[in-house]
User: Fold these one by one.
Assistant:
Number 1:
Amino acid sequence: MDADIKMAAAAVAEADAAFARLSAVRAAIARVIFGQEAAVEAALVTLLSGGHGLIVGVPGLAKTKLVETLAVVLGLSERRIQFTPDLMPSDILGSEVLDQAADGSRSFRFIRGPVFAQLVMADEINRASPRTQSALLQAMQEHHVTVAGVRHDLPAPFHVLATQNPLEQEGTYPLPEAQLDRFLLEIDLDYPDRDTERRILIETTGSEEATAERLLADGELQDLQALVRRMPVGERIVEAILDLVRGARPGADLVPDAARDIAWGPGPRAAQSLMLAVRARALLTGRYAPSLDDVAALAVPVLKHRMALTFEARARRRAVAEVIGLILAKVI
């Protein structure tokens, strides 16, 4: 019994220390990124869960600035890839070049592409062709790439934070469904309120501007990710996650009216993502276990990009978030 008490006390102390570190991280980010608290929280949940994030918003909402700030504060090596229509897969992964030695012998040498970083910013990912977008599929799922039949491991931790303009913007391509499923969360950025925009005007157009400072040491983010996976999850939360994900598929009988509007829905990876995300959000907000509030808060970011509505539902101007809300109301 004493051993169990000591283990529980140690786990609580570790969670408290992690919360203190994460509070400092959020404060450091807030000195650079103004008025996007929900987006910052979602991005941190994504990284604490060990996943990848898709940041969606119109130009000028600090999507790129957010990723750069996260990399600095969390102490991650960062590379930016600007996606354009003429970008090729080799521009992301790297390529082999033929070297000739002094004795005349020749051999191939692999030159690593920008994907070999701990935090890869895929800027405006939907401006590249689907073929080029798919170059990230293996990297995002398996954390290694294969070039000319040879495996090359990526750094650890490895995360992709992709920024995307809304699909109705000119010159964009929709992401393949298989790639969308590899993003743990879709992080939506909205316009700031008036007070926040006033602060942006004053603090970013003067002679001095706040810069990000590193807070986490090497390996510290991985320790936090390991802690997230050790957090207990109650049976009620597990059942809620299962009900929500399974209810968001075509033909589900949980909410028949909603299911009839779904063309295709989330697979098991969505349930895994939600399971990790609710744990990460609990830790980020100073709690020792996730609650139903976490499930409710993360349902749309986890499921929205993993679902599509039927033509009839879209003709009635029904939104994916609305359908998820109907299912969530039945589950919670």
Number 2:
Amino acid sequence: MSTNEPQAIPLLPAADRPAAERADAARNRRKILDAAARIVAEQGPEAVTMNAVAHASCIGVGTVYRRFGDVSSLLWALLDERERQFQEAYMAGPPPLGPGAPPEERLHAFLDALVDRVIEQREILLAAQAAAPSARYTSGAYLAMHAHLTMLLARVRPEANGALLAHLLLAPFSPSLMHHLSAERGLTAQDLKAGMTELLKLGV
């Protein structure tokens, strides 16, 4: 059976480097991201500002703004490589997350993997959401996940509005909600995965 996987969607259309990036531009981009990563590691994502990153990278603040636009885009760029790995896993990796397993199994595997990813990166995801609350829904990462879920749901519930259901299944993964449930309410990744399984039983 053909998997009919959607094509990979660029994860960060606004911040992604062009195909033929100049060597000096690539070096500046790397220095900016490395500086932002150091600030996150040493002080937390809330300490990331365009001025702080410019100072830490020894690059003019105007250049930082031109490359990334705002703090939210910069923080999402830090997540880019991990997002690409995740997208590769669910679109082309081994089953049940990747092709080859029944759509119901892939759906469960995807949501379980998404719990792990969001928990692992909840602080920086939360900071990115706080900087630009609606940016999550227009990012390439979200669009790729939505397309993937829509495809799986079309096979599990062909009579349903798969695009709407995909949005609703992704809604619990809002960084603020996941932070509240895990950091403030003390729920573990296993608790959250069990909850998603029960949610699927109710609607899918």
Number 3:
Amino acid sequence: MASPSPPSPFSEGPRPNHAFRELRGHLSPGEFAAAVRRAAGEIGERVSPDARYIGRVESGEIRCPNYAYERVFLHMFPGFGLTDLGFAPRAEVRGRRGSPGAHPPRLTVHNPTTVHNTATVHNTAVQGLTVQGHTVQSYEESDVLRRAFMTSGTATVATASLGTIGLPRPRGTSEGGPTRRATGRSGEAEVAAVEEAVRRIRVLDDRHGAEGLYHQAAGPLRAAYIFLDAGTARQSVEDRLHVGAGELAISVGWLAHDSGRFGDARSHYAEALATARMCGDNGVEAHAFSNTAFLARDTGRPREAVRAAQAAQRAARHLKSARLRSLLALREAGGWAGLGERTACERALGQAHTLFGRGPCDADPEWMSFYGEAELESLEAQCWSALAEWDRAARHAGRAADVALTRTPHFTRNIALYTAEFADGLARAGRPDEAAHAGQRVVSLLTEVRSPRVRTMLSTTMRTLLPHRGAPGVSEFLERCGELTEVG
């Protein structure tokens, strides 16, 4: 297939990538993005394209993909090269360093000793990348550091790798933080970096939990708001930057939330909500209210949880995602359960299942990748637990863990959480031997997952099982778990 001639690196504007559009065929941008994600999973790559990313490629805005996307695209279309796919040669794109408005990513590694001790990084040279001291500077994704994280499986390297989430340092700042107000305007590079930061934070959280990541993620959030303060040349760019900053605030808020820093989480969610309202984005507003409802439930304010969930549903009423509305109904159900309102809880649960049954669609927000059958079962389990229906809670939590292990084995943190919920439900339902067996599985996962939420649940299960030391497996579980958690 003939491919169009790549544009000059100094052309006045992007040229549409007709070759890539032809390869998409009859699929919608969202469907094609889903196909790219599936292909990435086949070769172990971690990319998160959505319909907007596909549109940016086809419009010519993305002239050459980063290395991870390149590997996925070449896997999807064997025998094709980048130019066959309509992209410009990588060397030509890299030659744009000195072009006006180009801001190469400046990536900070917060723990270089840890990274250098990873075998994958030793004596490795990558084009455009220097691993030296405290700073990594690259015009591409740091493939070496990404693979160091993927292969090591340790939370320590995950924390170090978080420094490579791809945010270009805003003009007028130093490594220690802002030194003066940025004088230039923010553009596409800053927006893309913020969006990629959100994706990478979510990947790290899914695999390792929030502890150790929260403070590392606060820096990119500060940078995002510096970008906003600097202003943009186009309204479309400013809108995207507001949305990206709002989603980043929610992601950082979630890390605080899952780490037990509830005051910080509440502040970040409020910041995200204000950002969403400034740019009039109902999707970010619904997301912020959803997380606010979850936080209110976790901090013993169930009536606030109901109100926040209902506000989220109002914000989402014109959005086309049934899955989003399903999750928001579950947030409301959790609030009603906390109030002991069984009838209202069951009504919201029924609505959640009905909406979930309509299936996924292109309008589903990218951040909802975690919300599948396993999460549905887990959130329902939490409702029954709040209503002291322990057998039902254990049954749904057990289903959540089984589904997660089968369908999303890379979501290690969620598997640990669901299994901890399962163990807690079994213990409270008077099935100590089964609870101990499930608890042992959670303890094994804590070598990879650092989540105070999970450890707190294990501590609760330990207290419940203390009177049952004589039951099979309970004593061994208490001994193993006691080394990792404290029974208060």
